[in-house]
Amino acid sequence: MSTQPKFNEGRLAQVLVAPIVSEKATMIAEKRNQVLFKVLRDATKPEIKAAVELMFKTKVDSVTVSNVKGKPRRFGRIEGRRRNWKKAYVRLAAGQEINFAATQ
Question: Where do the DSSP E strands lie in the chain?
């Protein structure tokens, strides 16, 4: 019997918004075997784990999330701000890796 709860596959397909590709993300991937994703603001850690395992067919050790506040921005005279968003650090099991080029 599986200890992981069942999730709706349609929901899991929407949880991961985009991979984060930056210098910091590349350094974290090399040092800690973690991959960064932009995820839905209401996504939970178990949902993120299930989504990564379903979409990339890999084993996930742990998930850490971070809520990122939107930066203030100006549009001419009007002051506004970017949207808040959620970032997920997904630690892969030893020997596992995600190749984004092969999944497209």
Answer: 16-19, 34-39, 60-68, 72-75, 78-81, 85-92
Q: Which residues pair with 36 in a beta bridge?
A: 89
Per-residue pLDDT tens for 70-80? 999 999 999 99
* Nearest residue to 13 (alpha-carbon basis) of 61, 53, 41, 60: 53
DSSP assignment letter at 60: E
Which of the 8 DSSP states describes residue 22? Answer: S
Query: The pTM is what?
Result: 0.84
For residue 18, give both structure tokens.
């985009």
Angle at 47 (CA atoms; ends 37, 84), nearest 5 degrees: 50
Of 33, 95, 98, the C-alpha closest to 64 is: 33
